[in-house]
Amino acid sequence: MSLDFLSPELGLFALLLATAVSLVQGSLPVVGAARGRAGWMAVGQPAAVAVLACVALSFACLVKAYVVSDFTVLNVVQNSHSSKPLLYKITGAWGNHEGSMVLWILILALFGAAVAVFGGNLPPSLRARVLGVQAWISLGFLSFTLLTSNPFERIFPPPANGQDLNPLLQDPGLAFHPPMLYTGYVGFSIVFAFAVAALLEGRVDAAWARWVRPWTLAAWTFLTGGIALGSWWAYYELGWGGWWFWDPVENVSFMPWLLGTALLHSAIVVEKRDALKAWTILLAILTFSLSLIGTFIVRSGLLTSVHSFAVDPERGLYILMLLAIAIGGSLLLFAFRAPTLKAGGLFAPVSREGGLVLNNLLLGTACATVFIGTLYPLFLEAFGGGRVSVGPPFYNLTFVPLMMPLFLVMGAGLLLPWKRADLAGVLGRLKLAIGGSVVAALAALWLLDGTPVLAMLWIGLAVWLALGTLTEFAERIRLFRGPVGESWRRARQLPRSAYGATLGHFGLAVVLAGIIGASIGKQEVVESLRPGETLELAGYSYAFEGVERTRGPNWAADTATFAVTREGAPVARLTPERRLYPVTERTTTEAAIHTTGLVDLYAVIGEPAEGEQGAWVVRLYHEPLVPWMWAGALILMLGGLLSLSDRRLRVGAPRRAPAGRGAGQAQPAE
Amino acid sequence: MKLRILLGALPLAVFLAAAGFFLWGLDPERDPSEIPSALVGAPAPAFELGPIPGSGGQGLATVDLVGQGPTLVNVWASWCVPCRAEHEVLTQLAEERGVRLVGIDYKDKPDDALAYLAELGDPYERIGADREGRVGIDWGISGVPETFVVDGEGQVVYRHVGPIAPAQVEEDILPALERAGR
Fold first, then answer.
1. Between A and B, how many CB-CB pairs are < 8 A?
2. Do A50 and A184 sit in the same domain of this protein?
3. What is the reported pLDDT for A11?
4. Could you tell me which residues of chain A have a Cβ less than 8 Å from any Cβ in chain B?
């Protein structure tokens, strides 16, 4: 089949059509819900599917323009080149501002259609309102793209070739990181739509919380993956051996994650105990608001960052207007409706609810800390205080200590019963975890002579979290308390959400261990080295064999070879590269990383050393436990996916049960 | 109930305050990547550089900035393309406006630097060759070109990052030189 019909004009037309359908989707169902007209409300579902079809067609047109290197399209000229490998031609379609907006809208439309298709168990009025709110968000981004960032603009006369994509982006990471991150960001738009719809309806109950839960989980899982992928990408591509820089753009993806995590937990309280309703609604609004603010900060040039998109204040103004409408409007609605939401069940401070409230307070404070740290340079500048940048020292003093009580509570959190808990009893059941963490901390003190006291505490905390989580799981399946067959039967009957919680908490312990290892155990060395010379780092010998000229499809590289040995035994051959992309005249470093599972051996080749014939600048990093961070992130995602597949989210929520039998009571407590 | 209403409105108030800052921050005149120099208002760093080998010229040191009136200190390199762009502006400032101009040749090969000056002309009264870039660090430069205005007592009055565009001569450089002359 010929794909010639996928012209840029068709793409633009499809976007316009999607805008028109979104207008219908944003008005008729909402008015219908207010007036109780079933026919009007029913328009929402087909409309959402139609929007998806239009946006998907538009996206296909854009990708096709990139694949065939259609240099009559300005966007392709600015971000592609005919010699670029096919993968990067495709991913290049969203490696720029305009194209990434189309991807963003595509994911938005996907989620809208998903609600239309899978939302069969929702009450019609709620579904109509959710789809309506979702359409408003789509309208905002569609109009933004059409008015300020048209990716299909033609150029005449067409140049013979394009300007190529930023070489840093010519990496498989671009294929996965932005789509995953956007799915996370945009997934929270559904949660936002649910919150606004609930405020419009004036009703928030356990059933609402259960309907929202899968969307929150899905968004959270993708956001977790997106952030981890971004961090991994920075780690191997930037060649500094670092994985998190507290850069504004990293922070704006981290803030929705923090609040989304809080939301994930507070929604449980609404579902099980009918409490924390106004707070949960607020979290739902704020989580998506932070995703929007993130988009705004990245694309307006408000703050400087290593991630630079083409910056344009005009666009910034338009997004700010959208922010004012979306966030200001929803918070205004919240201000009117929140005081009327009735508070639900009572609970003692030491209880599952109490623990979750503490979780929310700490995560909320942590998010506020990151928010202030990120925007402080702007605030200070606005008051004439000059330019500053806020870096890791700030976060080490504020954010990091906030995480300590969080992990402390987390270790015991899953063991706390609802309503009222016996603290002494819970701690008694955690004897093993308490003992294990103390032993680990002391062992660290003894083994790693000169470990800072704080690092020792953190090691204890990571062990505490892992053992506490495992203790709870072992108790649930009565491991070692009865026959193995009995435990196996119990393990099989546990709801998947329970596995999700266990994996989630355990995964975080693994991430934490990775962060601790990478923070206290990282070693690096920078030297100029001649071929034949050897460098020692942390017990490994790196023999520098030399540098070769190599060529890729659209780059030339200096490829170095290191033979790594440990006590004479060969470990790995590392071949870091320094690539020059002639079209953009930019170089990138391709670090070579060998992982043993416990440690990453990381090598980077720099420039020929000045003044020394034949010598090269070589940087080596010894990065202990870094692979654990990626493994932990995978466990976190697996936990999210398992929880998402829980039966209770698929069978649909029961209608609100009569008083006395709270919805979901038949389920084992999570 | 009053408290609940106030609490309910609190998030909106916080957002509106933040939005106010955002709006202010969008001012197109504002450039967040511009870095203020800790040197402005402070004495020029102590340094002493030899001439470009083979040029037969004089080097540049801190003493050359004292007692000779306002001076423009330009950090340049032959490998730097924007330097080429501003070279004509600098030449005009030195030859037509009578501005005292000295240069620091940053991380450059002597032959390349001499070829560059031979091709474009040498408007500098003195040039110090900073082959290792140590003095560049002392001056706190973030790239080349960068230009400093130093007054007759050796105090740094103004710092310009990047090439000097013709329009910026009237707007920034000459007023800074005037301030330095007072």
1. 77
2. no
3. 94
4. 278, 282, 285-286, 289, 293, 296, 300-304, 313, 316-317, 320, 323-324, 327-328, 331-332, 334-339, 375, 377-379, 381-382, 386-387
